[in-house]
Amino acid sequence: MPTMELRPNCECCDRDLPPQSREAFICTFECTFCRDCTDSVLQGICPNCKGELVRRPVRTEAMLVKYPASTIRKVKKDGCAAAA
Description:
Elements: E1 24-26, E2 32-34, H1 35-41, E3 54-55, H2 61-66, H3 79-83
Antiparallel strand pairs: 1-2, 1-3
């Protein structure tokens, strides 16, 4: 079963976004951003693909054991300001 990566941080400000966070937003390519960057800088649009950013679903603890979240951090070199 293919699973969502559940990336561990905001690509703009590098804020931690653990798998259970309801502050994580993603596009269809799973680019990941925090609520603050999504709302204030990106205006709900992914800077990479120009797609809509929506709240990332939360995986249950049982499924996190079977399908762990990603530990690979991705951060935009110049943060949100350059991404917008």
